[in-house]
Please model this.
Amino acid sequence: SLFLVDIFFQCIMEEKKDYAWVKDYVDSKEGRIKPGKVKDYLHALFERRIAVLDGAMGTMIQGYKLEEADFRGDRFKEHTASLKGNNDLLVMTQPQIITEIHEKYFRAGADICETNTFNGTSIAQADYEMESIVYELNKQAALVCRAAAVKMTKEQPHKPRLVAGAIGPTNKTLSMSPDVEDPAFRAVTWEEVVKAYKEQIRGLYDGGVDIFMVETVFDTLNCKAACWALDEFFEDDMKGKVERPPLIISGTITDKSGRTFSGQTIEGFYTSVQHAKPFCIGLNCALGARDMRPHLLALSNIAECYVHAYPNAGLPNAMGGYDEDPPAMVESCTDFFESGFMNMIGGCCGTSPGHIAALAGLAAKYEPRKPQPLCTNMRLSGLEMYEKTDNIPFVNLGERCNIAGSRKFKRLIMNKNYEEALQVALDQVENGAQVLDINMDDGLLDGVAAMQKFLKLIVADPAIAKAPIMVDSSKFHICEAGLQVSQGKCIFNSISLKGGEEAFREQAKKLKRYGCAVVVMAFDEKGQAATYEDKIRICKRAYDIMTSKEIDFPPWDIIFDPNILTIATGMKEHNTYAMDFINATEWIRKNLPHAHVSGGLSNLSFSFRGLGHLRESMHCAFLYHAINKGMDMGIVNAGALPVYTDVDKDLLTLLEDAILNRHDKATENLLDYAEKERENKSNKGGGKKKQEAEWRKMGVNERLTHALIKGIVKHIDEDVEEARQKFDKPLEVIEGPLMKGMSTVGDLFGAGKMFLPQVIKSARVMKKAVAYLIPFMEEEKKASGQTNTNAGTVLIATVKGDVHDIGKNIVGVVLACNNFKVVDIGVMCPLDKILEEAKKCNADIIGLSGLITPSLDEMVDVAKEMQKRGFKCPLLIGGATTSKMHTAVKIGPKYSNPVVHVLDASRAVVVCSNLLDARQRDDYVEDIAEMYQDLREEYYEGLSDVKYETLEKARKRPFKINWAKEPAPVKPKLIGTKVYKNFDLKELVKYIDWNPFFQTWQLRGKYPNRNYPKIFNDPNAGKEAKRVHTDAMKMIEDIVENKTLECRIIIGLYPANAEGDDIILYKDDDRKEELCRCYTLRQQALKEDREDAYMAMSDFVAPKGSGVKDYVGMFAVSAGFGIEKAIEKYQDDHDDYKSIMIKAIADRFAEAAAERAHEIMRTDLWGYSKDEKLSVEDMLRVKYQGIRPAPGYPSQPDHTEKLTMWSVMDVEKETGIKLSESLAMMPAASVSAICFANPKSHYFAVGKICKDQVEDYAARKKMKVGEVEKWLAADLSYDRA
Model:
């Protein structure tokens, strides 16, 4: 259509303008990128604009209506198998058709075309009995695509075309069984897939591809095999002597659940393939663009490389076709670009050159996405990603699936009872193990077969497979076999320098190729490191080798095990072993950047075999000290450990004496204790039973709290029933002893004295207690008649990636008992589901819950999406890792409606009630907003090393307004100025904001009596506030009657457009002659969220050249004329009280005049809100459209901008309001502002600025740098010379 032709023509013309940069990369004679320049060219291209990929090959081939004979051609006439449908073969039998398709896509605007080799492996070609021609087929496909690319590049050298070698997923999967009766069966092996991919890679490379594209990944393990084959081909076969083409990886989400066919989340998928260092990663096929969005958001938020999408033309219809035409697909994809997700766009099933031309036109309008900065946290994955952050002090490596560590597990495996063995794994995950340690080392067991079978069976159970795996063996090949059946990013346990440096290097290189994290044992050629000196020497040596240029192993994926050795053996040389480990841990964490420390605890207490309680207590005490020094992982059955604070004080002293080697008698004393324990044990544990019975003698409240902390379920029903009889309402049992217990659990967990598995045990006790109480609460609700009405609808959800729900469930129960309708949509809720369900139930409040640290980022994403979709309801944040500070700093700024952190269930009712009570809401929201603003300021002031962006880069991320979609700015009725003298003060009285008045007198009420007029009810400030207000009203009556003060107002309105950071004001609407320029400053403090803009006020004005005629307003007001005479009179009477009072009133009148002037501007002189019907209360709460920042305040801290305003409006001549040498307004009771009308304009703080901006600003304003620095002294990020 002409629409598409026009779009493409515009794109070509734009590119021709910017041809200079391309010349350095293109060999125009050869029609391709110069040798060795492909990766550099792609980086330059992706940084400058959004690249375009081709569309569907299969869809285009179908249009040729080919028959069997067409597929066969002359060469394969006699082939025994049917060849119809083998599209890849057409590069050999119908090359002119494939060439024509490539050319059509290139002409439509594609920068890159994929070779016609989606099924180009021997595995896929086996269906057609064509395995023997795979190399030839791939080479020919590359040559055909290359010919089309060369032709187009020679025609249009300003837009070089590239060839991507398409590597499809094959028709067999390494992660899933095709036999439902045998989940451990696989139709193909790792070695077979690697071999098949390598053959395809060789053909594509020899045919001259520029890029390798592993695409339509539905099984990540197949993708990892392709990446391995690429490594093997270039590093081993080609010896690293040739340029390696960049790699693009494209995954496929099979349904709206957001997972690949093999079950991985987007984050899990990315983490699994990140080691391959893809140039670009993205999604294609399966979903249409609209359904792809949330998954692209997740990928864009995590990917440190470029991101692409090539969706289908909608979802398949009933006939298997695709209904989205080019304009419809553009509409579906526009959000990708507006949200900043894209570096490359293309099309998959159902798309055509028309679709690609339309997408190319769309892409040309938007800036490309910037990759995420390098993440130096260790990321692991099973089906889901696990990220080790500083907020997670210790990772529990579940030890129960270790033959060497669990007699039960060994018995099950040796008896081939894999089904029950899987239950052991599931129990660990449910009990809080973040990683599963799998070890199959036994002399009578085929370790490779057992390891692979068990891991294959785990994949079939998503509840287990979500956790990352640690493959554990003393034999390298057994662990390697485990990696070859695991699609996620595993931990390899372990390697060491025991076999020498050469072997260590080879193993490290191989493990880097697998993309796993690795445990490095502190062994070398001399043996095991026992002393502190040996531990740090060996670990340093291993670290230096692994992070060397030759290997370049990511240091955050290195886990050192400096050997936890047995103490209290009676041998003096063993006494320091625990402290040697702890001290070595501290040294490693300080001196080997990003590395982690782990260890197996069981060795520590080996001297006390048979004394379970003593051993568990020893492990608990050791971990407390080791974790404080930096041990952040461990193979431990944490669920069996006591809480540190619960270890008997005398025993703890003995244990810590031995662990910390405090004195020479430590071992002897502990051995004496152990002997007594053995005697007690021989008495059938009577001592322990007595200890267990003691807590049953406590009061019921204390028993409930104790049971929660200890995770004891046994007596919970009887204790809850006893408590229910004691309290007036069942809910009081939850809000009393149960919440007290959970609060203690939270405190202990935060202090590192409880571990996650112990917290989960506590949560189960809480869950059971609440479940017991629910029927009684339901009965009570019915009896009170609270069945038909509710106080409001609250939707609650545990966010995506998090399965913890006990806290959320308790909140739900407490709210329901207080007559709220609670809609609980469960755990692992993606943001789309949360917001769709909130709309369905018309939620008044949305509550988000999460226990793990990644949940915090997901909550930020939900807040941003709520803002984007125009939600208005409050957002509540809760969960163990959440905090008021994080909510204020990270979440609140993303959503313009109330965001409130809820500490626990007991606070939920008060928060929800205040938010939904029309009488309380505004004051409550203001109170929260003020508190959170204080927290933000406290946070940012506390940052010792604030980083800043350069002005050049900050300007590339302005606040963006789509001016083409915005309603046209309203032209003011008045161009120029209007002056109001002797403005009626009586009219202004109702516009007075009394809250600052009370602050003048240092009178502050507390919520809910913080604001006027509720401050009169405040028990502390109320009486005095009432008195000064009464006095003020009497003085106001006198001022109005006697005209003691005079108010003057000047309003100016001007045609305006932005040019960079300047706002140009024009003399008239012809916009040919500049009247003046208003200069604005741009934020430079580094924004952690890459979607956040670096704002300047000029962003709120339509840019010059946009074709949009915009306008800007100004005003200056004063209510201080006549005040000097009044003050003089009061001072003569020695009446300081009235002197202060009239100054405070004049200030209030000035602010009231500003409010009224702005209202006149909005509703009359400018008229962009002519139908505005706001109460004064709403105006004071800034509920009007537009903003009115004042020079010298956060959005424009430069007072010298007042000079421009005074000049352009001739303020002093027209009103008598003057500026002092320091640019203070006189009279003092004066206000001035510049006004913006755009609905998206909002207040912000510029913050500190850097030298580059000061110099730029001075040049624009034609001022000396030193002068600018003087006026902006408080806003400089550096010290003035």
Observations:
- Residues 1-15 have pLDDT under 50 and may be disordered.
- The CA atoms of residues 441 and 854 lie 34 Å apart.
- The radius of gyration is 36 Å.
